[in-house]
Amino acid sequence: MTYQPMTAWVEIPVTDLEKSMAYYDEVFGWTSQMVTDMGPNPIAILDGADNGGGGHLYPGKPPATGTGATLHLSVSGKLEDAAARVTKAGGEVLGPIVDIPAGRFQYTLDLDGNSIGLFELGKK
Fold first, then answer.
1. Domain count of the fold of the chain
2. 50-109 tens-digit pLDDT
3. 3-state SS string over the chain?
4. Is 123 helix (H, G, I), strand (E, B) or coil?
C-alpha cells in the first residue's frame, strides 16, 4: 500500500452564514471568503487552509448540541487566547485544557452548537 498523508476538508453546517463566518474569523484570526459559484448554496471558505486541508461553512442543520463529530482546528498563538475569543464571539468553552503528547486542546461549541476543539501544537 502506498502511504497517503492525512488530508482533510471540513464542512461545518451553520444557521446564519454571515454571522458564523464572522465568528470563525474572530476566533481563529482568519479572513474567510463568501463564494456563490461552488454549488447550490453560497458557502464561506475558511481562511487558514494549508496544503493539508481546509474547509467551509454552509447553510445547513447542525446536529443537536455536542452530538456530532468534533473538529479540531489549529490555533495560532496561545490556546488560552483563542478560548477567550470563543467566549467573546458568543461561543462556549467546555472543560479544561487537555495536554497530549502532540500539544494541547480544549473543547468548545460554536454559535450553532457544533463541537470544535481548539488545538495548540506542542513545542518540539
1. 1
2. 545 688 999 999 998 878 899 999 998 999 999 999 999 999 999 999 999 999 999 999
3. CCCCCCCEEEEEEECCHHHHHHHHHHHHCCCCEEECCCCCCCEEECCCCECCEEEEEEECCCCCCCCCCCEEEECCCCHHHHHHHHHHHCCEEEEEEEEECCEEEEEEECCCCCEEEEEEECCC
4. coil
| pTM for the model | 0.88
Domain harbouring 110, CATH code: 3.10.180.10
* Any domain includes 2: no
The boundaries of the domain holding residue 94 are 8-121
